[in-house]
Automatic annotation (TrEMBL):
Pathway: Amino-acid biosynthesis; L-lysine biosynthesis via DAP pathway; DL-2,6-diaminopimelate from LL-2,6-diaminopimelate: step 1/1
Enzyme class: isomerase
Species of provenance: Metaplanococcus flavidus
Domain of life: Bacteria
Record PROSITE patterns: DAP_EPIMERASE
Swiss-Prot/TrEMBL site (Could be important to modulate the pK values of the two catalytic cysteine residues) positions: H160, E212
Keywords: Amino-acid biosynthesis, Cytoplasm, Isomerase, Lysine biosynthesis
Catalyzed reactions: (2S,6S)-2,6-diaminopimelate = meso-2,6-diaminopimelate
Gene3D superfamilies in the cross-refs: Diaminopimelate Epimerase, Chain A, domain 1
Lineage: Bacteria, Bacillati, Bacillota, Bacilli, Bacillales
Protein name, entry field: Diaminopimelate epimerase
Length: 317
């Protein structure tokens, strides 16, 4: 079967994206690809969907699967829209089918896409997070960390802990690094880890740096930037509507609206293809001997595939 492997990025949050490969060991593939190419933050898998144009699965560099990836969803949106010759599509994610849309191409040929970020929950159990019997944490200090930094916990639907910090703490990432490592290791608060973002107000908009669960510090985290824009609107740091969010990888626009007490989030930014490669995955051998030597045969084929891919990765890196 034909397998398409692309190296892509949204706001310099870089991924391998693969279509045409149905396997049960994407976590292993993600770890092997990211080990071979350390510039990559994870693996996006495009699969058929019963309810949408396509389905996305997201694997971090450590092999853990996430329920959502804002920067990655923009890249998948571009792949699907260009393949189908459409400007709008619906992509199935772990918790929701989300609308995606091609936006006006920027002058320097940069393709822009907008994606829905949903569902949104402030219930700590939806991250999951346990803290002092609270049901929600919105703009509250975590006394173990600091009395000055106001933290908020939100699932979009992957888990985010967002702290509003002064410039001096934003400038030196050691404070954020220490607590992000703690909350993604053995700890009493986040059973599945958490993406940790520090937000600082700018003249226009906000700056967000994120330590991503399963990855570490990245140039940008789409869901984190969007969740940070939401928290910044709730905190009155920026007005509701279109929020300009800067990050080490560049800039995105996050649109935050509230209708009948519910929030809606839209993330708009680039969806850039760095390289694309077709790979022929040999047809499985005859059913009879395939079943008998399935493990060995599949292992042999898999080794060949990984070596083939790593050859491709070397070209991409
Ligand atoms: N590390 C995230 C998944 C990737 C999200 C990020 N790359 C984005 O663009 O939203 C998690 O484990 O929840």
């Amino acid at each position: 079967m034909k397998v398409t492997l692309e190296k892509v990025h949204g706001s310099m949050n870089t991924f391998y994206m693969v279509e045409g490969l149905e396997r049960n060991d994407y976590a292993e593939l993600a770890m092997q690809l990211c080990d071979r190419d350390t510039s990559v933050d994870g693996l996006l898998v495009i699969l058929p969907s019963q309810t949408a144009h396509a389905k996305i699965r997201v694997f971090n560099r450590d092999g853990s699967e996430a329920s959502m990836c804002g920067n990655g969803l923009r890249c998948v949106a571009r792949y699907v829209c260009e393949k189908e010759g459409i400007r709008e599509a619906v992509i199935e994610t772990m918790k929701a089918d989300l609308k995606v849309k091609k936006e006006e191409t920027l002058t320097d040929g940069i393709e822009m896409y907008s994606v829905e970020i949903s569902p949104i929950s402030f219930r700590l159990e939806d991250l999951p997070m346990e803290y002092a019997e609270l049901e929600e944490m919105i703009l509250q200090p975590i006394s173990e960390i600091s009395e000055e930094i106001l933290f908020s916990a939100v699932a979009v639907p992957n888990p985010h802990l967002i702290g509003i910090v002064p410039e001096e703490i934003q400038k030196d990432s050691t404070h954020q690094h220490f607590w992000a490592e703690k909350f993604n290791g053995q700890n009493a608060y986040f059973a599945d880890g958490v993406n940790v973002s520090y937000v600082t107000k700018l003249e226009q908009g906000i700056f967000v740096r994120t330590f991503e669960r399963g990855v570490g510090f990245t140039n940008a985290c789409g869901t984190a930037m969007t969740a940070s824009a939401l928290i910044s609107c709730i905190a009155g740091i920026v007005p509701f509507g279109e929020v300009t969010v800067y990050n080490p990888g560049g800039m995105v626009k996050c649109t935050v609206t509230e209708t009948a007490g519910a929030y809606q989030l839209l993330l708009t930014g680039n969806a850039t293809r760095i390289s694309s490669h077709e790979y022929q995955w040999e047809k499985e051998s005859q059913e009879s001997d395939f079943l008998s030597s399935r493990k060995f045969e599949e292992q042999q084929q898999y080794e060949k595939f990984i070596n083939g891919i790593s050859g491709i990765v070397d070209q991409f890196a």
